[in-house]
Design brief:
The protein has 87 residues and is an all-alpha fold. It is built from four helices and no strands.
Length: 87
């Protein structure tokens, strides 16, 4: 998993989610992940909290509502944790 980038992980995850989740749920995950494209080329194992915070700061600068930012952050945390726990 060392060479697995954030972008590749998300693409694989979306393919998996399309088999198991409702279309609107998959769409909401895809939408949330589009706000973290700064991480796309980073190896998943090298992403740290400060890089995620930079993405969150960008969302604040874009004047997104706090509830939307919290939802995107929550989806990122939930699905990354789930995907990275699968061995």
């Amino acid at each position: 998993m060392m060479d697995l980038t954030f972008e590749k992980l998300i693409k694989k995850a979306i393919k998996h989610f399309e088999l198991h989740l409702e279309a609107n749920t998959v769409l909401s995950i895809e939408t949330a992940m589009t706000h973290f494209t700064k991480l796309d080329k980073k190896a998943v194992t090298e992403i740290d909290s400060s890089e995620i915070q930079e993405c969150i700061d960008d969302l604040v600068r874009k004047d997104l509502k706090a509830s939307a930012i919290n939802e995107y952050r929550s989806k990122l945390k939930k699905y990354l944790t789930m995907l990275l726990s699968i061995k």
